[in-house]
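User: Is it possible to get a 3D structure for a protein together with its bound compound? The compound here is adenine. I've pasted both below.
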Amino acid sequence: MKVDVITIFPRMIEAALSEGVVARANEAGTIDIRAWDLRDFTDDRHRTVDDVAYGGGPGMVMKPAPMFAAVERIGRERGAPDAVVLMTPQGRPFSHDEAERLSRMNHVVFICGRYEGVDERVAEGLVTDELSIGDYVLTGGELPALVVIDAVTRLVPGVVGDSASVVEDSFVSGLLDCPHYTRPAEFAGRTVPDVLLSGHHGEIERWRRRQRVRRTAERRPDLIERAELTADDRQELARWQAEAAQAGLGKPKEKGDEGD
Ligand code: ADE
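Assistant: Yes, that's possible. Here is the predicted structure of the complex:
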Protein backbone atom coordinates (compact mmCIF):
# COMPACT_ATOMS: atom_id res chain seq x y z
CA MET A 1 0.00 0.00 0.00
CA LYS A 2 1.31 3.42 -0.96
CA VAL A 3 0.56 6.38 1.36
CA ASP A 4 1.44 9.99 0.57
CA VAL A 5 1.08 12.85 3.04
CA ILE A 6 0.97 16.49 1.95
CA THR A 7 1.96 18.80 4.81
CA ILE A 8 3.93 21.89 5.72
CA PHE A 9 5.56 19.77 8.48
CA PRO A 10 6.97 16.69 6.72
CA ARG A 11 9.33 16.07 9.62
CA MET A 12 6.35 15.56 11.92
CA ILE A 13 5.24 12.67 9.72
CA GLU A 14 8.77 11.29 9.34
CA ALA A 15 9.42 11.45 13.10
CA ALA A 16 6.27 9.47 13.84
CA LEU A 17 7.30 6.92 11.21
CA SER A 18 10.75 6.38 12.70
CA GLU A 19 9.57 4.07 15.52
CA GLY A 20 7.24 1.16 16.01
CA VAL A 21 5.28 -1.35 13.99
CA VAL A 22 4.35 1.02 11.15
CA ALA A 23 7.98 2.20 10.86
CA ARG A 24 9.18 -1.41 10.51
CA ALA A 25 6.55 -2.18 7.87
CA ASN A 26 7.64 0.96 6.00
CA GLU A 27 11.31 -0.08 6.13
CA ALA A 28 10.44 -3.62 5.04
CA GLY A 29 8.45 -2.30 2.07
CA THR A 30 5.12 -3.84 3.19
CA ILE A 31 3.80 -0.30 3.05
CA ASP A 32 5.40 2.70 1.38
CA ILE A 33 4.77 6.01 3.12
CA ARG A 34 6.09 9.32 1.89
CA ALA A 35 5.74 12.87 3.21
CA TRP A 36 5.66 15.79 0.75
CA ASP A 37 6.50 19.36 1.76
CA LEU A 38 3.67 21.59 0.52
CA ARG A 39 6.09 24.53 0.27
CA ASP A 40 7.94 22.70 -2.53
CA PHE A 41 4.83 23.30 -4.66
CA THR A 42 4.72 27.07 -4.28
CA ASP A 43 6.14 29.43 -6.90
CA ASP A 44 6.97 32.56 -4.94
CA ARG A 45 10.16 33.53 -3.13
CA HIS A 46 8.56 33.20 0.31
CA ARG A 47 7.07 29.76 -0.43
CA THR A 48 3.65 31.03 0.64
CA VAL A 49 1.01 28.38 1.36
CA ASP A 50 -1.73 30.55 2.91
CA ASP A 51 -3.55 33.83 2.31
CA VAL A 52 -6.25 36.03 3.88
CA ALA A 53 -9.88 34.86 3.74
CA TYR A 54 -12.23 36.35 1.15
CA GLY A 55 -15.02 38.03 3.07
CA GLY A 56 -12.70 38.87 5.93
CA GLY A 57 -12.53 37.35 9.37
CA PRO A 58 -9.69 36.08 11.49
CA GLY A 59 -7.15 33.50 10.39
CA MET A 60 -5.56 32.51 7.14
CA VAL A 61 -6.75 30.01 4.53
CA MET A 62 -4.53 27.51 2.73
CA LYS A 63 -4.14 28.30 -0.97
CA PRO A 64 -5.48 25.80 -3.50
CA ALA A 65 -2.70 25.91 -6.12
CA PRO A 66 0.09 24.21 -4.08
CA MET A 67 -2.32 21.42 -3.05
CA PHE A 68 -3.35 20.77 -6.67
CA ALA A 69 0.31 20.84 -7.78
CA ALA A 70 1.33 18.38 -5.03
CA VAL A 71 -1.42 15.88 -5.89
CA GLU A 72 -0.59 16.22 -9.58
CA ARG A 73 3.09 15.41 -8.91
CA ILE A 74 2.21 12.46 -6.67
CA GLY A 75 -0.02 11.11 -9.45
CA ARG A 76 2.83 11.41 -11.95
CA GLU A 77 5.52 9.89 -9.74
CA ARG A 78 3.55 7.33 -7.79
CA GLY A 79 0.48 6.61 -9.94
CA ALA A 80 -3.12 7.77 -9.61
CA PRO A 81 -4.36 7.43 -6.00
CA ASP A 82 -7.54 5.55 -5.07
CA ALA A 83 -8.48 8.21 -2.51
CA VAL A 84 -7.43 11.75 -1.59
CA VAL A 85 -8.33 12.30 2.06
CA LEU A 86 -8.58 15.73 3.65
CA MET A 87 -8.22 15.71 7.43
CA THR A 88 -10.66 18.26 8.87
CA PRO A 89 -12.95 18.61 11.90
CA GLN A 90 -15.78 19.04 9.33
CA GLY A 91 -15.18 15.51 7.99
CA ARG A 92 -17.06 12.24 8.46
CA PRO A 93 -16.12 10.63 11.80
CA PHE A 94 -13.24 8.19 11.38
CA SER A 95 -14.05 4.66 12.58
CA HIS A 96 -12.90 1.07 12.34
CA ASP A 97 -15.15 0.60 9.29
CA GLU A 98 -13.47 3.55 7.57
CA ALA A 99 -10.07 2.09 8.49
CA GLU A 100 -11.02 -1.23 6.87
CA ARG A 101 -12.29 0.48 3.76
CA LEU A 102 -9.06 2.48 3.32
CA SER A 103 -6.88 -0.56 4.13
CA ARG A 104 -8.24 -2.32 1.04
CA MET A 105 -6.94 0.47 -1.22
CA ASN A 106 -3.58 0.42 -2.97
CA HIS A 107 -2.76 4.12 -2.79
CA VAL A 108 -4.08 6.86 -0.50
CA VAL A 109 -3.06 10.53 -0.34
CA PHE A 110 -3.63 12.56 2.85
CA ILE A 111 -3.88 16.35 2.86
CA CYS A 112 -3.10 18.03 6.19
CA GLY A 113 -4.60 21.48 6.68
CA ARG A 114 -3.35 24.20 9.00
CA TYR A 115 -4.63 27.67 9.88
CA GLU A 116 -8.38 28.39 9.63
CA GLY A 117 -8.87 25.84 6.89
CA VAL A 118 -8.23 24.89 3.30
CA ASP A 119 -9.69 26.70 0.27
CA GLU A 120 -13.01 24.95 -0.48
CA ARG A 121 -11.99 24.29 -4.10
CA VAL A 122 -9.53 21.69 -2.79
CA ALA A 123 -12.44 19.76 -1.22
CA GLU A 124 -14.52 20.23 -4.38
CA GLY A 125 -11.94 19.43 -7.04
CA LEU A 126 -9.34 17.18 -5.47
CA VAL A 127 -10.58 15.41 -2.39
CA THR A 128 -12.57 12.16 -2.36
CA ASP A 129 -13.06 11.89 1.42
CA GLU A 130 -13.08 14.33 4.34
CA LEU A 131 -12.35 12.68 7.69
CA SER A 132 -12.40 13.88 11.29
CA ILE A 133 -10.82 11.95 14.18
CA GLY A 134 -13.16 13.43 16.79
CA ASP A 135 -15.18 16.39 17.95
CA TYR A 136 -12.28 18.58 19.01
CA VAL A 137 -10.06 20.92 17.04
CA LEU A 138 -6.31 20.33 16.69
CA THR A 139 -3.80 22.83 15.32
CA GLY A 140 -3.44 20.89 12.09
CA GLY A 141 -4.20 17.72 10.17
CA GLU A 142 -0.82 16.04 10.75
CA LEU A 143 -1.70 14.25 14.00
CA PRO A 144 -5.13 13.22 12.61
CA ALA A 145 -3.46 11.89 9.42
CA LEU A 146 -1.00 9.91 11.55
CA VAL A 147 -3.86 8.47 13.60
CA VAL A 148 -5.65 7.35 10.44
CA ILE A 149 -2.46 6.01 8.83
CA ASP A 150 -1.66 4.00 11.97
CA ALA A 151 -5.17 2.53 12.22
CA VAL A 152 -5.30 1.76 8.47
CA THR A 153 -1.82 0.33 7.92
CA ARG A 154 -2.02 -2.07 10.87
CA LEU A 155 -4.90 -3.73 9.00
CA VAL A 156 -2.75 -4.24 5.91
CA PRO A 157 -1.70 -7.93 5.83
CA GLY A 158 1.88 -8.38 7.06
CA VAL A 159 2.13 -5.11 9.01
CA VAL A 160 1.18 -6.56 12.41
CA GLY A 161 3.13 -9.79 13.00
CA ASP A 162 0.34 -11.74 14.69
CA SER A 163 -2.74 -11.32 12.50
CA ALA A 164 -4.93 -12.93 15.23
CA SER A 165 -4.31 -9.91 17.45
CA VAL A 166 -5.77 -7.62 14.77
CA VAL A 167 -8.84 -9.83 14.33
CA GLU A 168 -9.56 -9.94 18.08
CA ASP A 169 -9.17 -6.22 18.67
CA SER A 170 -11.79 -3.84 19.95
CA PHE A 171 -14.38 -2.80 17.34
CA VAL A 172 -13.67 -5.65 14.92
CA SER A 173 -16.85 -7.38 16.06
CA GLY A 174 -18.40 -4.19 17.41
CA LEU A 175 -17.34 -5.00 20.99
CA LEU A 176 -14.58 -3.59 23.19
CA ASP A 177 -11.60 -5.79 24.02
CA CYS A 178 -11.45 -7.94 27.18
CA PRO A 179 -8.98 -7.32 30.06
CA HIS A 180 -5.46 -8.74 29.64
CA TYR A 181 -2.99 -9.96 32.27
CA THR A 182 0.62 -11.10 32.31
CA ARG A 183 2.94 -12.38 35.07
CA PRO A 184 3.07 -12.21 38.05
CA ALA A 185 -0.20 -13.93 39.02
CA GLU A 186 -0.39 -11.66 42.06
CA PHE A 187 0.68 -8.01 41.97
CA ALA A 188 0.19 -5.43 44.73
CA GLY A 189 -2.43 -7.67 46.31
CA ARG A 190 -4.39 -8.05 43.07
CA THR A 191 -4.74 -11.46 41.48
CA VAL A 192 -5.34 -12.63 37.93
CA PRO A 193 -8.80 -14.23 37.44
CA ASP A 194 -8.53 -17.98 38.19
CA VAL A 195 -10.01 -19.02 34.86
CA LEU A 196 -7.02 -17.55 32.98
CA LEU A 197 -4.67 -19.80 34.99
CA SER A 198 -6.84 -22.89 34.49
CA GLY A 199 -5.46 -23.89 31.10
CA HIS A 200 -9.04 -24.63 30.04
CA HIS A 201 -9.24 -23.00 26.62
CA GLY A 202 -12.99 -23.30 26.19
CA GLU A 203 -13.63 -21.67 29.56
CA ILE A 204 -11.07 -18.95 28.84
CA GLU A 205 -12.69 -18.09 25.51
CA ARG A 206 -16.14 -17.96 27.14
CA TRP A 207 -14.82 -15.74 29.94
CA ARG A 208 -13.17 -13.37 27.46
CA ARG A 209 -16.28 -13.07 25.35
CA ARG A 210 -18.42 -12.33 28.43
CA GLN A 211 -15.96 -9.69 29.61
CA ARG A 212 -16.16 -8.01 26.22
CA VAL A 213 -19.95 -7.95 26.34
CA ARG A 214 -19.93 -6.58 29.90
CA ARG A 215 -17.33 -3.92 29.23
CA THR A 216 -19.09 -2.74 26.12
CA ALA A 217 -22.45 -2.57 27.93
CA GLU A 218 -20.85 -0.66 30.82
CA ARG A 219 -18.64 1.75 28.91
CA ARG A 220 -20.22 2.07 25.47
CA PRO A 221 -23.98 1.49 25.53
CA ASP A 222 -24.08 3.06 22.05
CA LEU A 223 -21.98 0.16 20.71
CA ILE A 224 -23.84 -2.64 22.46
CA GLU A 225 -27.05 -1.59 20.74
CA ARG A 226 -25.48 -2.20 17.34
CA ALA A 227 -23.29 -5.24 18.18
CA GLU A 228 -23.99 -8.71 16.79
CA LEU A 229 -24.79 -10.72 19.91
CA THR A 230 -25.14 -14.49 20.32
CA ALA A 231 -27.65 -16.11 22.68
CA ASP A 232 -24.87 -16.52 25.26
CA ASP A 233 -23.95 -12.81 24.88
CA ARG A 234 -27.57 -11.83 25.54
CA GLN A 235 -27.64 -13.96 28.68
CA GLU A 236 -24.48 -12.27 29.91
CA LEU A 237 -25.98 -8.89 29.12
CA ALA A 238 -29.10 -9.76 31.13
CA ARG A 239 -26.92 -10.90 34.08
CA TRP A 240 -24.99 -7.65 33.90
CA GLN A 241 -28.21 -5.59 33.76
CA ALA A 242 -29.60 -7.43 36.79
CA GLU A 243 -26.35 -6.85 38.72
CA ALA A 244 -26.23 -3.20 37.72
CA ALA A 245 -29.86 -2.69 38.82
CA GLN A 246 -29.07 -4.41 42.12
CA ALA A 247 -25.98 -2.25 42.68
CA GLY A 248 -27.99 0.84 41.75
CA LEU A 249 -30.59 0.22 44.48
CA GLY A 250 -28.47 1.34 47.43
CA LYS A 251 -26.68 4.03 45.48
CA PRO A 252 -26.83 7.52 46.98
CA LYS A 253 -28.40 10.15 44.74
CA GLU A 254 -25.89 12.10 42.70
CA LYS A 255 -25.73 15.87 42.76
CA GLY A 256 -28.32 17.29 40.40
CA ASP A 257 -30.61 14.26 40.91
CA GLU A 258 -32.44 15.66 43.89
CA GLY A 259 -35.50 17.10 42.08
CA ASP A 260 -37.24 19.98 43.85
N1 ADE B 1 -7.77 19.06 11.98
C1 ADE B 1 -7.94 19.74 13.12
N2 ADE B 1 -8.71 19.06 13.97
C2 ADE B 1 -9.04 17.88 13.36
C3 ADE B 1 -9.82 16.75 13.71
N3 ADE B 1 -10.44 16.67 14.88
N4 ADE B 1 -9.91 15.75 12.83
C4 ADE B 1 -9.30 15.83 11.62
N5 ADE B 1 -8.56 16.86 11.23
C5 ADE B 1 -8.43 17.89 12.08
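The longest strand covers residues 83-93. The mean pLDDT is 94.
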